[in-house]
Amino acid sequence: MSRIETRFASLKAAGKKALIPYVTAGDPGPSVTVPLMHKMVAAGADIIELGVPFSDPMAEGPVIQKAMERALTHDVTLTEVLGMVNTFRQQDDATPVLLMGYANPIEVMGYRQFAENAAEAGVDGVLIVDMPPEEAVELLVETQARGLDVIFLVSPTTTDERIQLVSHAGSGFVYYVSLKGVTGAGHLNVQEVAQKVTNIKRFAQLPVCVGFGIKDAESASQIARVADGVVVGSALVKKIQENLGQTDKIEAAIADLLSAMRNAMDREKS
Amino acid sequence: MSSTEKYNLPDDRGHFGQYGGQFMAETLMEPVAELTRAYHHYMQDPVFQAELDKELQHYVGRPSPLYYAERWSSMLGGAKVYLKREDLNHTGAHKINNTVGQALLAKRMGKTRIIAETGAGQHGVASATVAARLGMECVVYMGEEDTQRQAMNVYRMKLLGAKVVPVTTGSRTLKDALNEAMRDWVTNIDNTFYIIGTVAGPHPYPAMVRDFQAIIGRETREQIQLHEGRQPDALVACVGGGSNAIGLFYPFIDDTEVAMYGVEGAGHGLDTGRHAAALCAGAPGVLHGNRTYLLEDAHGQIIETHSVSAGLDYPGAGPEHAWLKDAGRAQYVAVTDNEALDAFHDLTRIEGIIPALESSHALAYVKKLAPTMNKDQIIVVNLSGRGDKDIHTVAAHEGIEL
Q1: For residue B111, what is the DSSP state?
Q2: Inter-chain contacts counted by CB atoms under 8 A, chains A and B
Q3: H/E/C letters for each residue in A117-159?
Q4: pTM above 0.90?
Q5: Do B285 and A155 touch (CB under 8 A)?
Q6: Rounded mean pLDDT of B89-111?
Q7: Catalytic residue among B117, B320, B351, B358
Q8: B174 near B313, Cβ under 8 Å?
Q9: For residue range B7-31, what is the model confidence (pLDDT) as tens digits?
């Protein structure tokens, strides 16, 4: 069983939902990321999603765009991000780590090389925003051979036919993008999300996690009621943006928000 | 030999060999599938085609002339050079061929809002123009740096009723405008049609834009036959994203005796790293919905480009050009800012035609190519736009403040 599968199985046994924080690797500087990952685990994170900086992050709102720009001022490369995961693994062999990014850095490394390097570094899965299943055939050959999960997205515009395609092609979990828009957008509609998640579960055996627009304990607990996991990104990255140059404050602010989300989500189970 | 039956790319999923495709966020997949269906349907619909033809004739002013640049040809001392006068179209460039087509499609699809990205401003102006013509809302994304060097086009768009949004992220040029337009599109997908101005983006855009621009090549075939009784020996066009080039090339792809040259912006020189020549000096990668040649670093980050011509200042080129390059069917070359500026002056002084700086790159390559050819050989160069918009840039280059 992969780390991601194991984690969802144990959460299910405990009647809990997954809390999945996102930060951009190397934001605001390369030395911040690994300690921050450990702090997030301590604050209740079940899976960590690490953004791979890219010069043209088309699906990101302003908050994560800026995070990627900050990381790129330090020339944080995909190889360096894998190095961070490797360092993280030396102290934490249980928490799944998922890379989220865009196709081009992986293309340039080469699919086989990427899959080998990622598996070796202790990465568990990858989510490539601009690579739908139709374009991922060659990548999947390489990732499947090395036990890496590829997580695909489902959005409000995805048809039932495509939901089947996505849930067959992917593994780990299905990531439901809760709204039409970019990361950090503000128009989350919980009732709509509930209906969509129910519909996805008609076709998918995988857990369904929801991201985009979840920004506080209340929205996290509302989503946890209807999905298997909650992804929170921009709200955390905003804490980095607000505390640039003060690593302690960054860690504290992110840990506070995650703890609040964790508590609110765990209250939901009863 | 006039058919394009033998050449039938892209495939159903928008691939030109390994290039093209649909590398995009899931939210856009179904809307793009809907667009693909509409595009296939209306390209076969005689009523739509008749409306498009009418607009192209009476609104755009087609057919554009194919002009024999006799004086310039004799000075170059080689092949006869013909100019395909896309500069004479309404709004002053080839861009309107495509915006008219896509806007009519948008209307058929029930969309009420148009968005576009623009570099030099020509595509933005062409989009704002058709939006005004059809009574649709229009928002144009433009890199902040480009809004400064193309201030006149910004004002033209505003006059036409469009909202121009300066993009302040990344390198603040065309690629960032495209990123921002994509973000708008994914947010406002229900009522919004994204008119991409070049043969880039996810399928069906590269094929659809090509099909709307292919009128350039189709007219050229007929016109050169009338002038010369035969087809040309060489075609030359500038390549930023590559829409004017593919428009000219496409109807000639199966005529393998017709050479095709795409001319990229070498900026300060290919060896300086300050250029925009993705096909000449780039490598395959994925950006803006397709796989193609890109200017990128060793880690896959897109690098900043430079060209004196804002319309060529883009780190990629359309996937069909990538395929034509690898297949050896078209050759891609690059000329520097200074070579383009020289050609700009030559055409202005010798033929009394002020070319766009983009098109001046194609002309600069003609200056090299024509003298190597015989006097009975023929070059057709796509004069894709007029140079009025570039007067300030040219003047500034010469230290003149207007």
Answers
A1: -
A2: 123
A3: HHHHHCCCEEEECCCCHHHCHHHHHHHHHCCCEECCEECCCCC
A4: yes
A5: no
A6: 97
A7: B117
A8: yes
A9: 999 999 999 999 999 999 999 999 9
Please report residues of A whose CB lies closer than 8 A to that of B303.
55
Residue range B329-374, pLDDT digits in tens = 999 999 999 999 999 999 999 999 999 999 999 999 999 999 999 9
Task: Say how many Å lie between the first and final Cα of chain B, rounded.
Answer: 51
Report how far residue B392's alpha carbon sits from residue B151's, in angstroms, rounded to the nearest whole number.
10
Distance from C-alpha of B59 to C-alpha of B281, rounded to nearest angstrom: 39
Taking only the tens place, the pLDDT of each residue in B298-340 is 999 999 999 999 889 899 999 999 999 999 999 999 999 999 9
**B100/B373 Cα distance (integer angstroms):** 37
CB contacts, 8 Å: B186 with chain A: 59, 180-182
Tokens, residue B209: 């834009």
Nearest chain B CA: its distance from A60 CA (Å): 8
Check A58 against B190: CB less than 8 A apart: no
Q: What is the DSSP string of B38-56?
A: HHHHHHT-HHHHHHHHHII
Put simply, the answer to whether A104 touches B294 (Cβ < 8 Å) is yes
**Residue B145, pLDDT score:** 85
A206 CA to centre of own chain? 16
Mean of pLDDT values over A252-262: 98
ipTM of the complex: 0.95
Nearest to B222 by CA among B213, B214, B231: B231
Could you tell me the fold of the domain covering A3-10+18-261?
A: TIM Barrel (3.20.20)
Q: Across the interface, do A105 and B299 touch by the CB < 8 Å criterion? A: yes
**Pick the catalytic residue: B55, B111, B384, B389?**
B384
Q: Is B384 a catalytic residue?
A: yes
B190: which DSSP letter? T
